[in-house]
Design goal:
It is built from seven helices and no strands. It has 183 residues and is mainly α. It folds into two domains: 1-81, no CATH class; 85-183, no CATH class. The longest helix is centred in the last third of the chain and has 26 residues, at 157-182. The N and C termini lie far apart (39 Å).
């Protein structure tokens, strides 16, 4: 078993050092969606306009970065203990009222499991939510990690607006959409 994950006061500064390190190593930016876009550009048909860019120009580091993410997640999934999720009693009561029991890990199995794909609310949550996240990432020109970590560190106004929109969307999704989907 692996020890408990890094505490926030160690992981946070390490993530924060990624931005200046990438800028010093060739004016690169950090973001998951751009890395996935480069992978898609490498394998997608050229007739899709969004993927018609030279993915080789940015170098192979994006592919290595994604491979490391998958490898790290796989190793952690196999070796780390299941995380415990502590939520407020009021939140647990609100979720129970919507038919969602206590989370077995990081996410309630009623919404995020292979079996939930056969239910309407599981399908909407996983497939519909995934589509909306992908569309929003493409529309916003980056994902939450890219805008919040790299964009804000570069003082980009567009990233500040995007991060505000991400938080507003999260609040709307939590307080308005989730009760409709689960109701």
């Amino acid at each position: 078993m692996l020890p408990h994950p890094l505490p926030w006061y160690v992981a946070g500064p390490l993530i924060g050092l990624v931005v200046p390190a990438l800028l010093l190593l060739g004016n690169r930016t950090f973001g998951i969606s751009s890395s996935f876009r480069h992978v898609c550009a490498a394998v997608a048909p050229r007739r899709i306009e969004f993927f018609q860019h030279d993915w080789r120009r940015v170098g192979a580091w994006n592919l290595v970065f994604l491979a490391g993410l998958f490898l790290g997640a796989t190793v952690t999934w196999w070796l780390a203990p299941a995380p415990t999720v502590a939520i407020a009693p009021a939140t647990a009561a609100a979720l129970a009222a919507l038919g969602v029991g206590p989370a077995a890990g990081l996410a309630p199995p009623e919404l995020f499991s292979w079996g939930s794909l056969t239910t309407a609310r599981g399908l909407i949550a996983m497939v519909g939510g995934g589509f909306l996240v992908g569309f929003g990432t493409a529309y916003a020109g980056g994902c939450t990690s890219g805008h919040a970590i790299s964009g804000l560190a570069d003082f980009q106004l567009a990233s500040l607006v995007a991060v505000g929109a991400f938080f507003a969307g999260g609040l709307v999704g939590t307080h308005l959409l989730l009760p409709v989907v689960l109701g």
